[in-house]
């Protein structure tokens, strides 16, 4: 087993305090798609995608019109990516990533370590051999996708159902209780720019299972184990109904200092009842500042793993359901708060002997644009050895703006590998269709990921 150490790790929670804090989401004009409407409060709206369906024009048409985050439904799982030990196959997952890159969509990675969907060779392993195989798997997959993943489900479904609030028995659990934190440290070392999430089901309300997860996250935060987010699958059905304390449960996790995300949403039912439940889930996310996005587990009802429950937003023919309209209206009703400006990466631990700590800094711009249509840009930089994420916040001045361009020059040696919610022309970064309008005093955000060192940035902003 490899030895992981956290010497020198630095908590960055305080960094958020030096960022410019604007508590209200932009109340820009109502968006007409799920992704655009979610983006108005700095959030995303995603879906699970199966690679073999991308050639279906109806499927990909809806995908590219409505969604700006993609989770591979099965293609990044252990059985798919490492079918025989040490031999990696990324072809299906790479095809999804290529699709996302071509359509300005981001990726959630799913899932690095899970008791289920292990390849047969791993299913038969135990002890140190399995632990080493898990570490090797995470290192390889997270390295292959380094810089391309917004958030990884590092560990999936590790807690038991029922009243105990303890861990699920599995071959991974039997390698030692520390397998989860080892998985997170391994993922951080491989891709320091990705948010690292724990993901589970039946944790959507306050119950014994979710409290078990809550206690683990609290412990990880206290000990500097790198965890950035918790995913709530939210498979809602008659046996697992929408809990009345759904929002309160999201909030209690957010209060631990992690982002929360709704990661596999589907709701059994039809008509008004289903539509109302979708609205409740969406509004719950919007009401929690650190709820950064929602992903539904498929596009059409016929794409669902539970197609008989008709649990999704589009019918079998790709038509919008009442649930779609309800979810969109809820997104457009606006959040009371939006996600925080700083990507928090509390610590980076590199095995076996090097520990590094990313730093986050913020810098404001001088106001750009003329009187009445000005804006300011501020940057938050999450820097780690060899790479960075810059989050740029564009805040409108005394009047609303209908478009903006940020001037931002990165130092020589820094190379942009991806960006989101923005269109780039050299050192000019301009709004895309859905985030140009920003009301007076409100803001929108875009992101840049790159290799090298971002340094001290001095953005300018011009509104129109
Ligand atoms: O691709 C093969 C096909 O060639 C074969 O003929 C067929 C025979 O059964 O199987 C096909 O693979 C199936 C695969 O889905 C693709 O459709 C697998 O058997 C089946 O097990 C697999 O199910 C996936 C399930 O995870 C596995 O646990 C579902 O698609 C997927 O939606 C589901 O997703 C999970 C999340 O990862 C974690 N949270 C719960 C969620 C729902 O179960």
Specify the structural class. Answer: alpha/beta
Identify the strand order in the major beta sheet: 1-2-3-4-5-6-8-9
Number of helices: 11
Radius of gyration: 21 Å
Q: In brief, what are we looking at here?
A:
By secondary structure, the protein is of the alpha/beta class. 25% of the residues lie in helices and 24% in strands.
Describe the structure in your own words.
With 464 residues, this protein is α/β, with parallel strands linked by helices. Helix content is 25%, strand content 24%. The protein has eleven helices and 20 strands. It has an eight-stranded parallel barrel, surrounded by five helices. The N terminus is likely disordered. Ligand G3I binds next to loops. It catalyses: Endohydrolysis of (1->4)-beta-D-xylosidic linkages in xylans. Its EC number is 3.2.1.8. Pfam families: CBM_2, Glyco_hydro_10. It is an enzyme of class 3 (hydrolase). Belongs to the glycosyl hydrolase 10 (cellulase F) family.
């Amino acid at each position: 087993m490899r030895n992981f150490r956290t010497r020198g790790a630095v908590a960055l929670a305080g960094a958020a305090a030096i960022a410019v804090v604007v508590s209200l989401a932009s109340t820009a004009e109502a968006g007409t798609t799920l992704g655009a409407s979610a983006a108005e409060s700095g959030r995303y709206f995603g879906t699970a995608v199966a690679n073999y369906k991308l050639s279906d024009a109806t499927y990909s048409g809806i995908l590219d019109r409505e969604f700006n985050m993609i989770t591979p439904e099965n293609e990044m799982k252990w059985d798919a990516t490492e079918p025989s030990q040490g031999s990696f196959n990324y072809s299906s997952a790479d095809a999804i990533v290529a699709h996302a890159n071509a359509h300005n969509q981001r990726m959630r990675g799913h899932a690095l370590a899970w008791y289920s969907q292990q390849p047969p060779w791993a299913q038969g392993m135990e002890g140190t051999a399995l632990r080493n195989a898990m570490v090797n798997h995470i290192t390889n997959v997270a390295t292959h996708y380094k810089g391309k993943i917004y958030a990884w489900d590092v560990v999936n479904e590790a807690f038991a159902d029922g009243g105990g609030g303890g861990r699920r028995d599995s071959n991974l659990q039997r390698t030692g209780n520390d397998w989860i934190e080892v998985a997170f440290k391994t993922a951080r070392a491989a891709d320091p720019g990705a948010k690292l999430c724990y993901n589970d089901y039946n944790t959507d309300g306050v119950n014994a299972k979710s409290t078990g997860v809550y206690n683990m996250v609290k412990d990880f935060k206290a000990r500097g184990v790198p965890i950035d987010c918790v995913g709530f699958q939210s498979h809602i059905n008659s046996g697992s109904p929408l809990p009345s304390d759904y929002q309160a449960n999201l909030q209690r996790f957010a209060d631990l200092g992690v982002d929360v995300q709704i990661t596999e949403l589907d709701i059994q039912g039809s008509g008004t009842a289903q539509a109302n439940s979708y609205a409740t889930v969406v509004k719950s996310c919007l009401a929690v500042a650190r709820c950064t996005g929602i992903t539904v587990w498929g596009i059409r009802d016929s794409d669902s793993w539970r197609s008989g429950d008709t649990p999704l937003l589009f019918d079998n023919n790709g038509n919008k359901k009442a649930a779609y309209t309800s979810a969109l209206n809820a997104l457009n009703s606006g959040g009371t708060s939006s996600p925080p400006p700083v990507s928090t990466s509390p610590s980076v631990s590199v095995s076996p002997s090097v520990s590094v700590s990313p730093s986050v800094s913020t810098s404001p711009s001088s106001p750009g644009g003329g009187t009445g249509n000005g804006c300011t840009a501020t940057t938050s930089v999450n820097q780690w050895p060899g790479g960075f994420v810059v989050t740029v916040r564009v805040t409108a001045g005394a009047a609303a703006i209908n478009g903006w361009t940020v001037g931002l020059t990165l130092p020589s040696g820094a190379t942009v590998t991806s960006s989101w919610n923005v269109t780039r022309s050299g050192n000019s970064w301009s709004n895309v269709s859905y985030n140009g309008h920003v009301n007076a005093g409100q803001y929108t955000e875009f992101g840049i990921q790159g290799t090298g060192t971002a340094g001290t940035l001095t953005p300018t902003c011009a509104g129109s």
